[in-house]
Design brief:
alpha+beta; globular; 18% helix; eight-stranded antiparallel sheet; 8 strands; 37% strand; Multidrug-efflux Transporter 1 Regulator Bmrr, Chain A
Length: 177
């Protein structure tokens, strides 16, 4: 069973998310796990690690998502990639999203690396709201941004009970929005 062990706000600078975009049509068995395997097999994370790293953020491999809240089925995007410096050149074959300086709502979800860990993401918003995190950021097209952050060693090194920590993050609106 997954549990929330930490909920906090994290300030991040302007940065660039570099990666590859997928949609609901790319799902297999309801998810994107097969794409993670492809990324590791083809060395795409290693390629992104060669770019200028994002400074001032707790970085990791990201399952980055965005969609319109009222039209999830038609607008959902799932990206794989990493944060890099705001002005970093993105390698050929990758694309990017420029992200403004902002706050993130962050939840550390601890559990076994199985479906329960990821199902717990659905409960994040009440935890964020209970901790006064504010409104979600929306871009000019009305999309919200959220992501799974697979941090080393929180996610990559299980504890004595075999549990890992998945970071679940939501971009928050800036005060002037």
């Amino acid at each position: 069973m997954a549990e929330y062990i930490k909920v906090y706000k994290e300030r991040i600078p302007e940065l660039r998310f570099a990666g590859k975009r997928y949609t609901n049509a790319d799902r297999q068995n309801g998810g994107y796990g097969h794409l993670w395997g492809e990324w590791f097999a083809k060395g795409w994370f290693a390629e992104l690690e060669k770019t200028d790293a994002a400074k001032g953020t707790d970085n990791g491999y990201l399952g980055f998502m965005r969609c319109k809240e009222d039209d999830f089925a038609n607008t959902f995007e799932y990206w794989l990639g990493m944060f890099v410096a705001a002005d970093a050149a993105v390698p050929a074959g990758f694309t990017y999203i420029d992200m403004p300086e902002s706050d993130l709502a962050v939840a550390w979800i601890q559990g076994l690396d199985d479906g329960g860990l990821y199902a717990a993401e659905d409960e994040c918003m009440p935890h964020f709201e209970a901790n006064g995190m504010g409104k979600w950021y929306q871009d000019a097209e009305g999309r919200v941004y959220f992501f799974e952050r697979y941090n080393c060693p929180r996610y990559t090194t299980p504890n004595e009970q075999g549990k890992v920590i998945l970071d679940y993050c939501a971009y928050l609106a800036r005060a002037e929005e």
